Structure formats: C-alpha cells, structure tokens
C-alpha cells in the first residue's frame, strides 16, 4: 500500500515537526529570556528533544515506509517524499556515537571559543576546534557516502540542499577576480562626494523599537504570528505561526538596529509565507539557507538601503526621533549615503554590501581546504589573514579581529558561510525580476507600499517552500538560471555610479 | 540485577524530566509571550510532548524494570522508586483513548467556558462540562482501581499524593462548623476601628515591578535561576533552575500585585530549594499541591500580611511610590489593616484569608458529590449558590459570580480545590513551628531579614522534596501531625483580637 505508507510517513514527520517547533521556542527563549543559571538544564532539555527527533527519524519503520511509499510524479507529495528521503539519509547515515561526539565537541569548543575570542588566543582554541574539525570531517564522509556526495558537498547540503561546490566555485572565482577593483572603484566614487553626516543621538531605545515595529509591519510582518525582541546576536527563530526576530540597540546609532530589524524581517516574511497546509512536513519548510538569506538581503540590501526607500523612510525617522526639518543629516540623500558607505573592515557582521563577499570568500576558501585536509588547522590564522589582506588590503592585527570572530566553526557549522553570498546574488536576481514583472513594485517602495513586492515574493518564492530546488525556484521566478549578472550590475550601479 | 534495573529507570525518568522542563517553558511562554496566532500550533507541540512523556512512562520496559528494581529501605532511592511506581500507575492505568478523550473534552470545555463565563450562561457550558465530568469519572475509576483508591481519592492523589478524603473530611467539617461565627467575629472586631484609608495612586507599573523584584529578592528568590513577568492570571511555572513567576498590575492598587508576587515567590522558593542532585527524578519534585500552597501562603498570609512585615515594608513602599511621610495611609498600621480586611465576596481569587476557606468548602462539597454521582450537574448552580449563602450569607446574583468563575472544572482539574485550604492549614502550622524553633525568624521579619525563615524552610520542607509523605514532612518539621490548631489560633489572633 504505497499510498498508506506515504500517509504514515506524514504522521511521523508531523511529530518531528511539532518537536522542532518546541525546539524553536526553547532556542529563542535561551537567547532572549533564559536566566543564566538555567544554561545547563536547558542544554539538557534541548539535547533530549534533538535526540528524540533523531530517534523518530531513524527508527526502522521510517526506512521500511520510505522503501514502500509512492506519490504521483511532480506532486507536492512527491517533493515531500524526496525531502523525507533526504532528511532520513542525513540522519541515518550518522552513527549515534558520532552524533553524540559531534555535539559534545561543539559544546566544548563553543565554551572555549568565548574565552579564546576575548583573549585573541587561537592556540587556546586549537585543541577543541581540532576535535570539532575531525568530527565534522567524519560526519562529512559518512553523509557523503550515504548521499553520493563529496564530503564538503555533504556539509553544504545540510544548509543548502542541492547546492554543490561545483555551483559555488565558478561564482566565487569570478568575485575573487573582480572584487578588489570593485571595492577600489566604489571607494573612489564615494570619495568624490563629502562623507555623510549622521544625525546625532541619543536615539531612545523605545523609539527605535517603535520604528522597528512600524517598518516590520509596513514590510508585511504579521504581528499576530510573531514577535520582535532583543538578544545579544540578532536572529530569526521561533516556530510555525510564531516567527520571532531579535535585534540589539545602541542609543547613539539607530540605523544599525533598524537595518538589522529589516534584515530579520526578510527572513521572517519567508517563514510566515510558507504554505500553511504543509507546515508540519519537510516539503513545507524553507528551501535552504541561500534562498533564506536572499529574502533577508532582498529586504535589507536591495530595498531598505536604496534611495527610493529612504525617500519614504527619512521623514518618518526624522519625525520619530524629533530631528529638525532643516537638519541635512535627516535628508533621504544623507541617510541613503550613510547606509551605503563602503569601508573595508575586519569584522564580517559589520561589513558593508561591497566588502562583505570578501569575508565570505576567505572563509569558504579556508573551510574547504580544512575539510579537504590541504590546510592544517594550526596554519589557519596565517592563511586567513593572508586572504583578508589579499582581498581587502587590511593587515589583521590579532585573531580576535580575524579567524576567531565567528561562532560558525566552533559550533560545527561548516558549509554555512557560502550561503551568505549566494543569498546576496539571488537577492539581486529576484529583485530585478520583481521590478521588471510589476512597475507597482518599485513605485510602491518609494511610497512605503511593500504589498506588491511581498505579493510577488509570496507567489514566486515563499509559497514554493521546498517543492523545487533552489535553482528551479529561481528559474521559475526570474526566467533565468541563477547567475551573478544582476548582483554585479546592482553593485556597479549603486556603488560606482554605473547606469 | 535489581540495582541495574533501578539505574536504568533513573535514565528513563530523567528523559521524562527533561521533556517536562521543556513543557514548563512552553507553557510559560504560551501565557506570557506567545502571539495569539500561534495558539493552535503551540497546542500541537505541547500535546506531542505530553504524549511522548506518556509513551516513555508506559512503555513495557518500564513495567519490567519496576518489577525487578530494588533500593535500600528508607533511602532516597527507595522513595524515588516508590514515586516512579506511583507515576507509572497513574499513567499506565489510563487507556490511550481515554487520555485522548479527556484532553479533547477539556480543550472543548475550556473554550466554551470562556464564552459561558462572560455571558453567565451555565446552560451553554452544560454539554461540554458534562463530557468533562464523565471522562473525569472514567479516569477516577480506572486510576482508583490501579492505585487501590476510591475514585475521588484517585483524583486527589494526582495533585496531592497520599492525601485522602478521609483526611480532608473531618478538617473541613470543623471549618464548616466554625467558619460563619469566625467571619462574623472578625467583621465585628474590625468594625470597632475605622476602615483603613488606602494610599491614592496612580502607582506606576515600573515602580510596582521594581518593588516586586526587591521583595522577591529579600525573601530569597534567586534571580539567576528565575524570572518575574506579566500574565493575565498569575502563576509560578518554568523549569528546574528556571522558576518563573508572573503577576498582573493595576495602576490604582499596588497591594494586589505585590501580595500576588509574594505569594508566587513562596511557590518559587520551594521549587528553587528542591535538591539539585535529584532534580530530574520523581523524588526530587515538590511533594504535592497542599505543601506547595503552604509555601505560597506562608509567605503571603503568614508573613507578608502581618504587622511586623509591614513595619519593615511600609516605609520602603512609601518611599518607592513617593508618598508623604505624614500621610497616615502609608503607616504600617494602615497598610496592615488594608491587607487583612475581611469582606465576604463572590470571587474566590479576590477573597480575604478568613472567607477564602468558604469558597473552597463549597467547591469541595460540589465536586465530591458530582464525582460520586449524588449531585446532577444541571443542579450545580443551585447547590453552589446555596453553599455560598450558607457560609457567607451572600446571594449569588448570576453564575458568572458563582459556579462559572473558575477554570478548574472545565479544564479537568477535579480534586484540586481542597489543596488551597489544606495548604493554608499547613502554612500556619509550619510558621508556628518555625517561630518557636528560632527567635531570629520572627525578629528577622520585622527587619526585612528573611534568611533565617528561608533557612528553616529549606531544611525542613524544600530539601525534603518527595522523600516523605506530606504528613511525615509536617511531623518531622513541626513535631506534630497535621492539624488545624495553629490555623485556627492564627485566624482568631489576627482577626478577632484573641491572644
């Protein structure tokens, strides 16, 4: 009974989905609400639920049902079945003791990383990071064998199903070739006009929060199915029908928090736009981290850091913070120039749109070489710093500002970094297609009407969930395969005065 | 290998404990943080984790291990094993379809209750409440058969392990006999002095919250392992090492929220004082709802609504809210009289210390008769109102102010009400014993030093967790079996001027 087998599978996966929703709330709470003394107990609860999901997913009955299940070709059911098989292979290929070893190594290394980063002491991180890398390579090998992928592709596939190194390498090679000239051109172009003068604060946090909410709602965030809160590191989390974003506020700079809120709102709109009928099933989840990042960067980089957006937002911001109408710092032009300023720096999360890919390229080159074994971990700082120097012309003064800055590697998230820049590329391509498809989309942005844009994204991206691969979603949405054309045109146009 | 069997059991129960911690946070979040649109999804997640706990607890391996497991008589291990057996019997005795039917009936009835209460329409509640009562009686019969208890005792045992109707009946009969005279005496006694004049507000919520936190910390609440937040109905929830209490604020009355915070702090101190080494095991949990309520009422009724407490608190409160030093409304005497005012009313949760037991007596008589089948549900309003009239002399004008006011019955919590008054009785007995044991305890209260009191409670109650029965804990702590002597003396002394 292949149809019954499929139906039984949906029941098991719905159960996993509901536990994952619980985990989403527990994870959010950990970063937003939890008192410090509960860290150990919370880690135990989260680990217990993770293991339960793993047990349900790898139980013998799932393999039997997957063997027998069938669904009509081309249907959502068929896509769901394919995602079930992918999830099963990712989970079942990893022996329980490796799951455990990976999780423990990552916990130990994250702890060590907090101290090592503070002290800028890479040597102190080396033993635990070495263990994480070893377990990551073990994981990559067993997953790769099960999925028919190279080890690094198996890691990538965890975050961005279907994306392979063969897709990324040519794109990143092109960027590596063009980026130094682009950065130089952008800086030269910007040097021709005076530096923007920023409005002077303080900008009280309650007002910043109020503006953040207003922008979220304008972009289409449904406050009945989500929240905005504060955490040390901004993120989008939560659960189905309960998408929670966070930001952090500085009272002398409202733009950082606002752009952060808009970025996370892009992620949240994707989650809120996933098809309700498939919400507990694998096919109903967001397609992958590249497409996810394309949604956040579309809202932040393509929309909010644009001149038309600032034409609408500048007077609202000025009024909200009580700025003088005559103060040129509050003009749309000045705010636009402030949020598009190009300045090479050491810290990835503070990087502007033009220099950001340099940070990703270096990390991608490092992690592929580390996973391949062509770079030894002890040589990472030197290689990392050389990479930054080559692309940004900066001399990294210490590892705190270098290879110790990100939590990804210590926490075991290898294969994640390239999705940031793949997302930026897709964001540009999607924005270009949307603008061409409906003139109401660009004209709406300048008037604070984002409904046409959201409608287009709902139809072409959000509602597709994981029914197609990322390239097929892009092809269907834009009429073309994923390419860097729109991205490069966008950067040249915005930063180098190209038409 | 009886010792191995016991160890294996602790592993299974630790897993359940960790899922229960997750449920504690999800439940807190539902009432404090969750956006409205997530209600259905959250209910699914909570139900899924509840079912998982039930599956783990009733798996065949647990019965086998319980058959074989042994632990040294009198040890914590032996008490743990006994609690495991009790938990197993409570869970395994109920067939899965009855668990499901009960849960669905309660969900439907809770929904119907919200509307029925608003409209004061008992007839509208009757069908779903009838279903809840039927399923409750089914549950009581099967649990009673497994535990060797009468149906109502089986319900009681869910909330207050070991407490039986035979323990409650004589205590409540005594109260029923004495209460009307006590209420009359208290009112006559209070009528001899002018009514207290309350300080006039508004009392800004942030200041109320600040005072609430200050009092919590003074009483010994560990903010590193807990939180204070706002919810529609105050409660104490959360998880191990993460005890979360809530309150609600009215800006024209700070005393209600403050007394609420102190009440929930009493619950929270019990949870925070449970033995860390046993935190994931059944024996490491709070003993039962009577003892739990004794801890909240000890802090609220015995301590905070006392004159010595107000000697300490009144100047702090006056200063916090900017009251004038000369304003007699801010005197310790006035505030003390305000928080001990006796006034019969319709609503249980608003009742004073003297009339509160009347509300419980009526509910206890109703629910025992309904479970026994000697009262028909359609006759509940009339019987309820007759009960209130008999004890408080009030004529209930509508069911909103009568039998529709509480969520307990609609939600399936039958057998819970008596624990409120049993808790009040134990609170008085424990307070009396503590004051006798160490003169630093009463003298500390008048100076805002609650450490001696908390130390005594930690030693004699909190650290005992579920190692002994409630009566045995009381006996060990106070040197006497549970009795109403201290409670009646306390009420006579505080409210009737008896020495």
From TrEMBL, chains A, B:
GO function terms (MF aspect):
metal ion binding; metallocarboxypeptidase activity
- Which segments does the entry list as coiled coil? none
Spell out the catalytic residues.
264 (proton donor/acceptor)
PROSITE patterns given for it? PEPTIDASE_M32
What top-level branch of life does the organism fall under? Bacteria
The UniProt annotation places Zn(2+) binding at 263, 267, 293
Q: Which UniProt keywords apply?
A: Carboxypeptidase, Hydrolase, Metal-binding, Metalloprotease, Protease, Zinc
How is the cofactor bound here?
Binds 1 zinc ion per subunit.
Which cofactor is essential here?
Answer: Zn(2+)
Which InterPro entries does this one have?
Answer: Peptidase_M32_Taq
Q: A GO term (biological process) for this protein? A: proteolysis
Transmembrane among the record's keywords? no
Q: Which reaction does it catalyse?
A: Release of a C-terminal amino acid with broad specificity, except for -Pro
Provide the function of this protein: Broad specificity carboxypetidase that releases amino acids sequentially from the C-terminus, including neutral, aromatic, polar and basic residues.
Q: Which PANTHER family match?
A: CARBOXYPEPTIDASE 1, METAL-DEPENDENT CARBOXYPEPTIDASE
- Spell out the family assignment given in the record's similarity comment: Belongs to the peptidase M32 family.
Name under which the protein is recorded: Metal-dependent carboxypeptidase
């Amino acid at each position: 009974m292949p149809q019954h087998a499929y139906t039984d599978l949906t029941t098991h996966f719905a159960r996993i989905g509901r536990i994952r929703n619980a985990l989403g709330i527990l994870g959010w709470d950990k970063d937003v609400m939890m008192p410090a003394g509960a860290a150990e107990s919370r880690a135990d609860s989260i680990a217990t639920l993770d293991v339960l999901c793993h047990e349900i997913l790898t139980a013998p009955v799932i393999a039997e049902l997957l063997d027998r299940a069938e669904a009509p070709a081309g249907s959502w059911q068929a896509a769901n079945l394919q995602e079930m098989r992918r999830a099963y292979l990712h989970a079942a290929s990893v022996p329980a003791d490796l799951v455990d070893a990976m999780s423990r190594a990552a916990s130990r290394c994250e702890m060590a990383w907090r101290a090592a980063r503070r002290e800028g002491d890479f040597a102190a991180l080396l033993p635990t990071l070495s263990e994480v890398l070893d377990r990551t390579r073990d994981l990559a090998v067993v997953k790769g064998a099960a999925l028919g992928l190279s080890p690094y592709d198996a890691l990538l596939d965890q975050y961005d199903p279907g994306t392979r190194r063969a897709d990324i390498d040519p794109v990143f090679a092109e960027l590596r070739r063009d980026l130094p000239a682009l950065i130089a051109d952008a800086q030269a172009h910007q040097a021709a006009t005076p530096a923007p003068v920023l409005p002077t604060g303080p900008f009280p946090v309650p007002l910043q929060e109020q503006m953040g909410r207003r922008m979220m709602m304008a972009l289409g965030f449904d406050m009945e199915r989500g929240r905005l809160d504060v955490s040390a590191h901004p993120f989008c989390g939560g659960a189905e029908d309960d998408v929670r974003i966070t930001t952090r506020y500085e009272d002398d700079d409202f733009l950082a928090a606002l752009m952060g809120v808009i970025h996370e709102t892009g992620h949240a709109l994707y989650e809120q736009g996933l098809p309700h009928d498939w919400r507990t099933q694998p096919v109903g989840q967001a397609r992958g981290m590249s497409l996810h990042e394309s949604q956040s960067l579309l809202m932040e980089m393509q929309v909010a850091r644009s001149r038309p957006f600032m034409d609408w937002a500048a007077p609202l911001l000025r009024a909200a913070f009580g700025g003088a109408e005559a103060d040129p710092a509050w003009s749309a032009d000045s705010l636009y120039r402030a949020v598009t300023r190009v300045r090479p720096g050491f810290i990835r999360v503070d990087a502007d749109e033009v220099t950001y890919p340099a940070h990703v390229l270096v990390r991608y080159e490092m992690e592929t070489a580390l996973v391949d074994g062509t770079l030894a971990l002890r040589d990472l700082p030197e290689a990392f710093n050389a990479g930054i120097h080559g692309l940004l012309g900066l001399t990294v003064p210490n590892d705190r500002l270098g290879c110790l800055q990100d939590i990804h590697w210590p926490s075991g998230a290898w294969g994640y970094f390239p999705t940031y820049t793949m997302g930026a590329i897709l964001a540009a391509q999607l924005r270009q297609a949307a603008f061409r498809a409906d003139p109401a989309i660009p004209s709406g942005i300048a008037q604070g009407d984002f409904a046409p844009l959201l409608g287009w994204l709902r139809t072409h991206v959000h509602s597709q969930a994981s029914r197609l691969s990322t390239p097929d979603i892009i092809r269907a949405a834009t009429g073309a395969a994923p390419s860097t054309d729109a991205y490069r045109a966008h950067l040249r146009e915005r930063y180098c005065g190209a038409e």
